[in-house]
Amino acid sequence: LSVQDTFCGATPISDRYLLTAAFCVFDPVHPISTVRLGELDFSKDNETNARPRDYQIEQIIVHPDYQVSITYHVHRPDSPVRSYDIALLKTVEKISFNDVVFPFCVSSERPSVGTTVIGSGFGLVNETHQSPVLQEVEVEVMALAECEKQYQEAGLLPHLKQAYPNLLNGSKVICAGYPGRGACKGDEGGPLYLDDGQGHRYLVGIVSFTGACKKESVMPGIYTNVADHIDFIDSVLYGGN
């Protein structure tokens, strides 16, 4: 997804629907109309990078409890509360799957603390440079108290609290990180997943909030907990939308 001057990710979960962050698509001034799938390297031309395909978006379904305000502006670290930061995109045409584009399984269980999970996206690889190549990174699920502590020590807790004032009072988010690596600006909306090593990827989170992206102080990422929103997802996929 191209959102103004940066990118957001989205993850196919069926041949017509993708999951992303509501943060990425709740913008009436710059509505999202297409999603590109199969892009691995933006630096290559079409002749050598023939896999990508753009799909028109028929419908954007944002979680009904997603909270925004009139001061909303995408990709600001001090954006308003991002509770229920999840949305589905419905494509006009069926998605063609191949060895690069395939549906993720939607996990019904929250990963436990210490679990190794994988994130991917075209986000920043340092403070200023956005990668033209799709990046993957392994991180570990963290206890929310430890996550808050790291933001406190970095002086970034006010930003975190503004986006998630009740971070420690629920199960709607996952915190995951690892020293020196993690999600950065431009990765929002992208997947956090488990790989079973047998060709299945289980979507457990959606990138919602990223902190500083200095190599020496990459902050843990905050992800929407997919398992906590199974009812919403099912209502869209099977409820007639």
From TrEMBL:
<dbReference type="InterPro" id="IPR001314">
    <property type="entry name" value="Peptidase_S1A"/>
</dbReference>
<comment type="similarity">
    <text>Belongs to the peptidase S1 family. CLIP subfamily.</text>
</comment>
<dbReference type="GO" id="GO:0004252">
    <property type="term" value="F:serine-type endopeptidase activity"/>
</dbReference>
<keyword id="KW-1015">Disulfide bond</keyword>
<dbReference type="GO" id="GO:0006508">
    <property type="term" value="P:proteolysis"/>
</dbReference>
<dbReference type="InterPro" id="IPR001254">
    <property type="entry name" value="Trypsin_dom"/>
</dbReference>
<feature type="domain" description="Peptidase S1">
    <location>
        <begin position="1"/>
        <end position="238"/>
    </location>
</feature>
<dbReference type="InterPro" id="IPR043504">
    <property type="entry name" value="Peptidase_S1_PA_chymotrypsin"/>
</dbReference>
<protein>
    <submittedName>
        <fullName>Phenoloxidase-activating factor 3-like 4</fullName>
    </submittedName>
</protein>
<dbReference type="InterPro" id="IPR051487">
    <property type="entry name" value="Ser/Thr_Proteases_Immune/Dev"/>
</dbReference>
<dbReference type="Pfam" id="PF00089">
    <property type="entry name" value="Trypsin"/>
</dbReference>
<dbReference type="InterPro" id="IPR009003">
    <property type="entry name" value="Peptidase_S1_PA"/>
</dbReference>
